[in-house]
Amino acid sequence: MKAIQIFSLVLVGALLLAGVAVVLPLLNDDTVTVAFSEKSNFETLIIAKETGMLEEAGIKPLVVTGGIRAAEALVTGSADMAAMGDGPAISTISKDNGAMIVARFINGEGMHRFIAHTDILEPKDLEGKKVGLQQGSSTHGAFLRWMDANGVDSSKVILVPMDPINIPLAMQSGVSGQDQNGIVAMVGSEPWAIATERLCGSAVHEIGNSSGQGTTFPMVLLASQRIMERNPAAVSAMIEILMRSNQFIIDNWSEAMDICASRTGVADAAEQEMCSLLQNYEVGFNGSDLQSLEMAAEVMLEFGRISSLPDIPSRIDLRFLAGLDT
User: What predicted TM-score, i.e. pTM, was given to this entire model?
Assistant: First the structure.
């Protein structure tokens, strides 16, 4: 594996050193687009959009459903940059498309949760049963790792690919008896897990989550080869926006929770806070992020989600972070 210089950019310290940054509009007329989801794990991008930071910099938001959709937008050229979790990021850099990981903006060990009917008492009870998830997502990889750690024969678990927005209702149909052959468990980050608990109440419980797996599940920003070559200032501007947005969340927590709750589909700001408290809001990239991505790649290879291990360090470009660390 190639050597890589890892920069650690702690958000608060960087802002104190640099002062309050002002992102100027980009210096060309090309439309620059960033793809992301309006769900938990993407609060940084939601705040950047809703407070006008993206508009101020001339960056157009492209709202999609899940990191895997953001990755598709990047690969197809619908977006110049895209925010996603480790699973979609690994899938993206495994292809010869020139996309690079340029920063991490959020992480958190327990951000993926596994909710099951109450008659599923232990992990092995999932064998022979149907589990709903978004295929190829970061949560998918976390669930595969969790099954392996808990002695579950994954070949006996029936994974049902679903649009995550439909998973809570699918679980509700199962527990109400409307769908006897439906899913008995769901795998998801927020707000899908908390929405399932809200809809199904005491008929479901958390059977596990992604904590304790030795990974921090970094949420990362990827940039296309085209934007890095033709408009590198746009990438630097986007990273600066991520920093400002995270700082806004830290400094204006209640307001940020209100804003995010209006976009993520949770019931209220209190529910949003439960989701957001699972995460750390820091922009940068360090050895822990690299290790987490390598672990994700190993799991994805083991379970056939990728055909070979990518050379991850060669697909990371930290020059935009380095430029801000002055």
Answer: 0.81
